[in-house]
């Protein structure tokens, strides 16, 4: 139990030297208003330095999601928000053409993210562009020992997720803000430095952070949101440390074309890492293929024909045979598992569609995992990749970021409702305590997956396969896994 | 007393800053000097001198005031002695927001629902409550009997253009009554247990309330459970404070509060308790008024 607060107040008085100090303080009080003006000159403040409630540093997908969410709520839409990013996509209105082949930078958004986008009114803009829902997912293993298929109807959903190009998500959020009556100002430059506690103790800006921009301008904000990606300048300037590591693995991403349209997301685990084929609409799919660095440089530079051959081998019967359905079903070794066959009876193993054409450049990037040790300090808060970077294995990176953005907007609204200073650390900690456990659980799962599949060792392969078979046949567990991957549940491991 | 008047008068005098500049150049120098130095430590300041000219109806309880004066520097330290007030703040403000939005028929979804309303925060301390009320749009007057609290409150409010409009004044509720001031809402949170005459104090609060206005009072219950949780835990189990520093008998039960408010022509409309969840470290509103509680009342038409 917590003791009542009164206790803290009953400290006995032990003081002395009263008059001098009091007179000085009195003078201090009386003159503060005037002296502030004096100070303003001394410190080079000018009244034309703009003052904002919130400065969002980084107008990527996550920063824009925060702005959008703030614009959508009655309590926050009156806030005066600055968005700082030199990315020209924030300014020019060049439209996205539906005929163009899809960009290789895509995100798999979960039903939870879709619901949040609908809430703020941004999903209708996504629907105007290319987007592809999928309702099935097949995950299997090159050893041929196991596979599992997830189906939306197993969790009573229409879809398991939707694959959308990052530029479409970004543009939709931007359109959504532009069509809301929202006081945002876009500063088309980068943040270069920031002072969280401007020197003067009683300036009218004393409760704001001062931001210096790359074009020499500056501005004040009560709250600075670092949405500036994995190399966050805000994180660096605020002195927030990170924990993380690099995997000695790279991912190749690209867009491909195949024979027939599909509504299934495919992922196969190979000796050096997984390959995923995500339908992005029409007959296009996105490929995310994890491998060791030497392989990635080879496969980036090889001819298109050779690359496609490798892709098809990786998705079909290269490295090992197709798994047979129900290899472990009912076997004595796993008799302790509760088997629910009715759920998965129709889910036979399928071979993914054959890839016929490369439709974009091949991009290579290294995999890493990075987590900020703190998300919130006084006047500073981190969201999205600035707070956590994960490899794209389960396409969770940006979903975690969207989760952050919407949660932070909600916490800010709660603060505004009760007249809090929105830069107050006790308020921002509420955001942290909601998001940190959720993100860390997700990171642990992804890291676990990563570790389990980056080792090619016989007994482990069998265990892995057993885990797959388990996931295939034990419906409650399977439901939990899917609902976690689709952003429905918070703590699958503890519930 | 003289000093308090002096402050008020001087403050009014000094409103146009240039006027001051020409008349008191040496004051300015002192101010500049101190703007570069850290604020003086708490111990450097003893309590204000005993108020010898207190008349019988005064709400002042000097022993209590001395306690507050001694820790005034820590008002805005969220981890300091006033931590419980900081932690409780969002919860009690949520109660105030919801009752007063209903009372004054204001849109609860609006950022500044109290725009155009005059509130007085009696016993404002360092302004922990006054500042959020100002951000919610109210025109706030904050009063406290301890001069040092008012000074801290004023300096802190100056940091933010929105809160710098708060009118802080070192005075008492009964003095404002003498000056015939009226407010739309009169708020005194965690004060009544520190005053000399709770019933008289309530009469003053009532007199400050405009007809059709609202009154909000929060305090700690004189219940066995409040005693157990608050005192035993803090004084004996956690050893936070020297034993025996609580003035137990000065606490009011909810029934007593309702009664004395009634006698001051205030009808209590709603009451809520605050409960602390040690797991989340947060307070929430509840029907349980056994330990800490808040009451919202309306002034009866005379
Ligand atoms: C190649 C690649 C493929 C990926 N594939 C997937 C996937 O399939 N699924 C998935 O869910 N996730 C994927 N991710 C992760 C996903 O892209 C990120 O999680 C997501 O982009 C994070 O968004 P963000 O807004 O937090 O950061 P970013 O998208 O990195 O945006 C940061 C923004 O901040 C701006 N900025 C940076 N520094 C400053 C500064 N000093 N001042 C002002 N502005 C600044 C930048 O211009 C940029 O606009 C992938 C990541 C990469 C790199
Ligand atoms: C526990 S604090 C509460 C502060 C503030 N109302 C809050 O809840 O955050 C009590 C305050 O009441 C002031 N006080 C006590 N007796 C008073 C009186 N008779 N008149 C005015 N203020 C008084 C004290 O100086 C102290 O600042």
UniProtKB/TrEMBL annotation, chain A:
A GO BP entry is:
xanthophyll biosynthetic process
Superkingdom assignment: Eukaryota
* Catalytic reaction equation(s): a 4-hydroxy-3-(all-trans-polyprenyl)benzoate + 2 reduced [2Fe-2S]-[ferredoxin] + O2 + 2 H(+) = a 3,4-dihydroxy-5-(all-trans-polyprenyl)benzoate + 2 oxidized [2Fe-2S]-[ferredoxin] + H2O; a 2-methoxy-6-(all-trans-polyprenyl)phenol + 2 reduced [2Fe-2S]-[ferredoxin] + O2 + 2 H(+) = a 2-methoxy-6-(all-trans-polyprenyl)benzene-1,4-diol + 2 oxidized [2Fe-2S]-[ferredoxin] + H2O
Annotated membrane topology is: Peripheral membrane protein
SUPFAM superfamilies in the record, alphabetically? Answer: FAD/NAD(P)-binding domain
UniProt keyword list: FAD, Flavoprotein, Membrane, Mitochondrion, Mitochondrion inner membrane, Monooxygenase, Oxidoreductase, Transmembrane, Transmembrane helix, Ubiquinone biosynthesis
Single Gene Ontology MF annotation: 2-methoxy-6-polyprenolphenol 4-hydroxylase activity
Q: In which pathway does it act?
A: Cofactor biosynthesis; ubiquinone biosynthesis
Enzyme Commission number = 1.14.15.45, 1.14.15.46
Which residue windows are transmembrane per the record?
Answer: 12-33, 54-75
The primary location reported for this protein is mitochondrion
Please tell me one Gene Ontology term that the record gives under cellular component: extrinsic component of mitochondrial inner membrane
Which top-level enzyme class is recorded in the Swiss-Prot or TrEMBL entry?
Answer: oxidoreductase
Cofactors required: FAD
Query: What region holds the FAD-binding domain?
Result: 53-304, 364-443
**Cellular compartment(s):** Mitochondrion inner membrane
Concerning HAMAP family, the annotation shows: COQ6_monooxygenase
- State the function annotated in the UniProt record: FAD-dependent monooxygenase required for two non-consecutive steps during ubiquinone biosynthesis. Required for the C5-ring hydroxylation during ubiquinone biosynthesis by catalyzing the hydroxylation of 4-hydroxy-3-(all-trans-polyprenyl)benzoic acid to 3,4-dihydroxy-5-(all-trans-polyprenyl)benzoic acid. Also acts downstream of coq4, for the C1-hydroxylation during ubiquinone biosynthesis by catalyzing the hydroxylation of 2-methoxy-6-(all-trans-polyprenyl)phenol to 2-methoxy-6-(all-trans-polyprenyl)benzene-1,4-diol.
Write out the similarity annotation: Belongs to the UbiH/COQ6 family.
Subunit comment: Component of a multi-subunit COQ enzyme complex.
* PANTHER family per the UniProt record, alphabetical: UBIQUINONE BIOSYNTHESIS MONOOXYGENASE COQ6, MITOCHONDRIAL (PTHR43876:SF7)
Q: What is this protein called?
A: Ubiquinone biosynthesis monooxygenase COQ6, mitochondrial
Q: Which organism is it from?
A: Buddleja alternifolia
Q: Which gene encodes it?
A: COQ6
TrEMBL record, chain B:
Q: How does it sit in the membrane?
A: Peripheral membrane protein
Which Gene3D superfamilies does the protein's record reference? Vaccinia Virus protein VP39
Q: Which cofactor does it need?
A: Mg(2+)
Q: One MF term from GO for this chain? A: metal ion binding
* Superkingdom assignment: Eukaryota
Keyword presence, Transferase = yes
Q: Provide this UniProt record's keywords sorted from A to Z.
A: Magnesium, Membrane, Metal-binding, Methyltransferase, Mitochondrion, Mitochondrion inner membrane, S-adenosyl-L-methionine, Transferase, Ubiquinone biosynthesis
Query: Record's InterPro entries?
Result: SAM-dependent_MTases_sf (IPR029063), UbiG_MeTrfase (IPR010233)
Q: Under which EC number(s) is this enzyme classified?
A: 2.1.1.64, 2.1.1.-, 2.1.1.114
Tell me, what's a Pfam family for it?
Methyltransf_23
**GO biological process terms, semicolon-separated:** methylation
> Which residues span the membrane?
none
Which positions in this protein are listed as binding S-adenosyl-L-methionine? 92, 123, 144, 189
Q: How does it assemble?
A: Component of a multi-subunit COQ enzyme complex.
What role does it play? O-methyltransferase required for two non-consecutive steps during ubiquinone biosynthesis. Catalyzes the 2 O-methylation of 3,4-dihydroxy-5-(all-trans-polyprenyl)benzoic acid into 4-hydroxy-3-methoxy-5-(all-trans-polyprenyl)benzoic acid. Also catalyzes the last step of ubiquinone biosynthesis by mediating methylation of 3-demethylubiquinone into ubiquinone. Also able to mediate the methylation of 3-demethylubiquinol into ubiquinol.
Could you tell me what this protein is called? Ubiquinone biosynthesis O-methyltransferase, mitochondrial
Q: Which organism is it from?
A: Buddleja alternifolia
């Amino acid at each position: 139990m917590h003791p009542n607060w009164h206790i803290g107040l009953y400290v006995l008085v032990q003081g002395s030297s009263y008059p001098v100090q009091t007179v000085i303080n009195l003078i201090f009080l009386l003159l503060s208003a005037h002296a502030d003006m004096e100070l303003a000159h001394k410190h080079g403040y000018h009244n034309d330095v703009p003052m904002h409630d919130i400065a969002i540093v980084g107008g990527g997908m996550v920063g824009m999601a925060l702005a959008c969410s703030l614009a959508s709520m009655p309590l926050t839409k009156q806030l005066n928000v600055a968005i700082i990013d030199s990315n020209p996509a924030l300014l020019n209105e060049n439209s996205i053409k539906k005929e163009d082949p899809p960009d290789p930078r895509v995100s798999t958004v979960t039903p939870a993210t879709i619901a949040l986008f609908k809430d703020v009114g941004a999903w209708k803009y996504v629907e105007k562009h290319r987007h592809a829902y999928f309702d099935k997912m097949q995950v299997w293993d090159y050893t041929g020992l196991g596979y599992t298929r997830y189906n939306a109807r197993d969790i009573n959903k229409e879809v398991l997720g939707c694959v959308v190009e990052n530029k479409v998500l970004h543009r939709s959020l931007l359109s959504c803000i532009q069509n809301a009556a929202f006081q945002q100002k876009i500063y088309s430059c980068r943040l270069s430095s920031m002072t969280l506690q401007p020197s003067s103790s009683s300036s009218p800006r004393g409760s704001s952070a001062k931001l210096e921009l790359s074009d020499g301008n500056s501005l004040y904000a009560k709250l600075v949101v670092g949405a500036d990606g994995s190399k966050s300048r805000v994180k660096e300037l605020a002195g927030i440390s990170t924990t993380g590591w690099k995997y000695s693995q790279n991912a190749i991403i690209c867009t491909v074309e195949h024979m027939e349209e599909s509504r299934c997301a495919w992922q196969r685990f190979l000796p050096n890492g997984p390959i995923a084929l995500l339908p992005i609409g029409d007959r296009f799919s996105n490929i995310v293929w994890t491998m060791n660095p030497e392989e990635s440089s080879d496969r980036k530079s090889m001819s298109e024909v050779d690359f496609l051959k490798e892709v098809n081998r990786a998705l079909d019967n290269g490295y090992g045979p197709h798994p047979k359905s129900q290899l472990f079903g009912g076997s004595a070794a796993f008799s302790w598992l509760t088997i629910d066959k009715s759920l998965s009876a129709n889910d036979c193993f399928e071979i993914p569609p054959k890839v016929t054409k490369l439709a974009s450049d091949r991009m290579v990037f290294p995999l890493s995992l990075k987590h900020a040790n703190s998300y919130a300090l006084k006047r500073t808060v981190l969201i999205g990749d600035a707070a956590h970077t994960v490899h794209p294995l389960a396409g969770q990176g940006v979903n975690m970021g969207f989760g952050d953005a919407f949660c932070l907007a909600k916490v800010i609204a709660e603060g505004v409702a009760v007249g809090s200073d929105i830069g107050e650390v006790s308020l921002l900690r509420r955001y942290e305590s909601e998001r940190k456990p959720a993100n860390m659980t997700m990171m642990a799962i992804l890291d676990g997956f990563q570790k389990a599949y980056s080792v090619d060792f016989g007994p482990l392969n069998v265990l892995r396969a057993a885990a797959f078979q388990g996931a295939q046949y034990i419906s409650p567990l399977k439901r939990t896994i899917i609902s976690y991957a689709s952003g429905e549940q918070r703590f699958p491991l503890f519930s | 007393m003289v000093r308090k008047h002096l402050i008020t008068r001087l403050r009014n005098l000094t409103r146009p800053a240039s006027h001051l500049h020409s008349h008191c150049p040496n004051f300015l120098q002192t101010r500049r000097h101190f703007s570069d130095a850290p604020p003086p430590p708490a111990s450097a300041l003893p309590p204000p001198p005993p108020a010898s000219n207190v008349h019988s109806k005064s709400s002042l309880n000097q022993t209590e005031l001395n306690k507050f004066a001694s820790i005034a520097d820590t008002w805005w330290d969220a981890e300091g002695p006033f931590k419980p007030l900081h932690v409780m703040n969002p919860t009690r403000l949520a109660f105030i927001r919801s009752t007063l939005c209903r009372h004054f028929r204001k849109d609860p979804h609006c950022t500044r629902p109290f725009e155009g309303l005059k509130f007085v925060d009696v016993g404002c301390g360092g302004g922990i409550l006054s500042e959020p009320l100002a951000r919610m749009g109210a025109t706030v007057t904050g009063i406290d009997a301890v001069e040092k609290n008012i000074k801290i409150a004023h300096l802190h409010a100056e940091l933010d253009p929105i809160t710098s409009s708060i009118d802080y004044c070192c005075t008492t509720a009964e003095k404002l009554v003498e000056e015939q001031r009226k407010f739309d809402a009169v708020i005194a949170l965690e004060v009544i247990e520190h005053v000399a005459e709770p019933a008289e104090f309530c009469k003053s609060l009532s007199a400050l309330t405009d007809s059709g206005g609202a009154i909000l009072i929060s305090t700690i219950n004189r219940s066995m459970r409040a005693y157990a949780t608050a005192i035993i835990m803090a004084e004996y189990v956690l050893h936070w404070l020297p034993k025996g520093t609580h003035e137990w008998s000065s606490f009011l039960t909810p029934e007593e509060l309702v009664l004395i408010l009634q006698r001051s022509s205030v009808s209590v409309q709603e009451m809520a308790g605050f409960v602390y969840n040690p797991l989340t470290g947060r307070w929430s509103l509840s029907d349980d008024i056994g330990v800490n509680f808040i009451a919202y009342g309306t002034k009866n038409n005379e």
